[in-house]
Amino acid sequence: MLKKIRVTLGSLFLIGLTLLFLDFTGTLHHYLGWMAKVQALEAVLALNVVIIIGLVVLTFVFGRIYCSVICPLGVMQDLFGWLGKKSKKNRYTFSKEVRWLRYAMLVIFVAGCLAGVGTIIELLAPYSAFGRIATMLLQPLWMLGNNVLALVAEHYESYAFYGVDVWMKSLPVFAISLITLVVLAVLAWRNGRTYCNTICPVGTVLSFISRFSLLKIHFNEDKCRNCSLCTKNCKAACIDFKNHQVDYSRCVVCGDCVESCKFGALKYGFNRPHGAHKTHSTQEAHSAQDPSKRAFLISSALLTTAALAQEAKHVDGGLADIIEKKAPERLTPVVPPGARSLKNMTQHCTGCQLCVSKCPNDVLRPSMDIASLMQPVMSFEKGYCRPECTRCSEVCPAGAIKLIDKEEKTGIQIGHAVVAADFCISALGEAECGNCARHCPAGAIEMVPSDPDDDLSPSVPAVNEAMCIGCGACEHLCPVRPLSAIHVEGHEVHKMI
Fold first, then answer.
1. Which pTM does this prediction carry?
2. I want to staple 135 with a disulfide (CB 3.0 to 4.6 A). Which of 69, 357, 419, 495 is the partner?
C-alpha cells in the first residue's frame, strides 16, 4: 500500500510538472504552478516561510517522502531505476554513506549561494536540472507535435491548434541538459538514488531531519529470515539486512523494501521504544503491519503535501526572405521586469528554465555568460517584451522575478535604447523609416533632423532615456539586418519612472 500511494502521488507530480514546462500557451500554470512553488530550494530562495516550515514538519514526521513524491528529478530517477529492474531484478546492494562527498557538495553549494555564483546553483539544484531537461529536450518535441496537429487542423479548416516557432534557445544549455539526462539515467539505471544521496544538496539537508523522523522503516527481528530481498530492492542502498539496520538519512520512504519482504519483517511506523521487550516489539510490529494503518499514515503525509501545495497556490510576417537578426553585444544584460536588479537575479535564480519555457514572445533565453550560466536574459530577435505580459513573474518559484501587475510593469525601467547611427537607414538617407518611433509603446523615441539647422536633413531617432522602459520593441522591429540600428542596454538596478 505504501508503495502504491507513493507511485501514484509521485506520478502525478512528475506528469504535472512536466506538463507545466511543456505548455507554451500559459494555460496550465494557473492550475499546476503550485507544484513549482513547493520545491524545497525554490521555497528557501523565495523566503516562502509557510512552505519551508511545512516541508521541515513533513520530513520530521514522515521521513524523506519529499524526495519520492514532490521532487520531479527524484521521481524521474525512480522511473529509470524501474526500467533498470526490468532487465535485472534484485540489483541493489547495501553501501555505507559517503559522508565526505555529500557534505563537500553541500559546502560547495552553500558557498556558491553566498558568493552569488549562479552556475554552481544551477548545476547542483535538482528541480533546475529537471527543468532544463523538460525545456531544452522535451518541449521542442512537444511543440513539433503541436505543429503537426496544426497542419492537420488547417487542412480541415479548424483553428483548434496553431503553429509555433521551434528554435534552439541555447546550444550550450542544450548540451548541459543532454549530459545531465544521460548521467542521471545511467546512475539511476545501475544504482538507484546515487545522485540523491551523494550530490543533491536538498537531499543532504533533508537527511539531517529524516534521521530523527517519527515514522520510519523498522525491522522485526523475530520475523526476519535474512533473505536480503529488502537490501537487493533498496534503491537508496541504505538497508543493512545482516545487522537489521536502516540508514534513515538516505531512506526516501519508497516502500519497495516493505513490499519485497515475504515474511512481513519490515514495517513503516513509529520508533520502537528503546530497550522494550522483544515480545512487545513483535506485537507493535504486528499492529504497524496492518495494511489499513500503513495506508492511513502515508495518506496523512500526502494530504499534508496537498495542503502545503494549496497554501503556495497563491508574428510579424511578410512574403520576402529576410536575414535573421543577431543579438548585439550588450555591455549590461537585460533581465525581466520584476527581477529588480542583476544582483537579485543572480542570488535567487536556480536556472530552472520555467520562465524561458513560458515566455510567449520568445524574448527570454538562457544566459551563456559563465557567471550567470542558464539564468534568463532578454534578447529581442524573435519578439519584444510586451507591456501587458507578466507571465514570467507569475511562474517564477524562487523569487528571482517578483510578482508584478500590468500597471506596475509599464513603469519599470529595465534598460534604455541606444541608437547606432552608422546602421540607421534614415540617418544614412537611404529611406524614410521611423519604425522605432512609431512602435515605441512608451513614446520615448521621436524622429528629429540629423542637422538641427536643416529641417530637410535626414531624420534620425532620438531616445528620451527618462521615458524608455527597455521593452525592446524598437530593436525587434528595426528593419536593419543582421544587427539592428537600435538596441537595448540593460540596467544593473531597475527603477520606476
1. 0.85
2. 357
